[in-house]
């Protein structure tokens, strides 16, 4: 009888261990799951999964992308611009060499200017962008944003001329 009991205990331990290992996902599997949640508009689940990637695999090549996706979801899907800015700042802090750092720094300025309406912060981050990434393809966009900071889109002269030209073309 003791041998049967011991065998059962060992079998239970092995099965428990195997079940525990089966629940562990690779960073690639987790990322695919997060993207699936995103396509299903399950943004909270997507962000939780992206956050797990950042937490469990902070030094992986996917952690910075997961952090960027969190910031993206906050701004584009949940309209929580403060949290989006925080998430972009976290990316810059944790992954300053990331290929997503350029976009994150731009987005901080953009969100401050266009969503939060904090023009001083927008100016600060746009200037920081120009100092940090003077060779970026986004420089002209940043400079345009700085030049038109705080202006209503209807106040920008060349845009009005383009609208007038389009209206005239339609009228003909």
Explained architecture:
- The chain has 172 residues and is mainly alpha-helical.
- It has a single domain, classed as Tetratricopeptide repeat domain (Serine Threonine Protein Phosphatase 5, Tetratricopeptide repeat, Alpha Horseshoe), CATH 1.25.40.
- The chain has helices at residues 2-23, 27-39, 43-56, 63-76, 81-94, 101-116, 119-132, 139-147, 157-171.
- It is elongated.
- The relative contact order is 0.06.
What's this entry about, in short?
With 172 residues, the protein is mainly α.
Please describe the structure with a list of short key phrases separated by commas or semicolons:
172 residues; single chain; elongated; 9 helices; 0% strand; Serine Threonine Protein Phosphatase 5, Tetratricopeptide repeat; mainly alpha
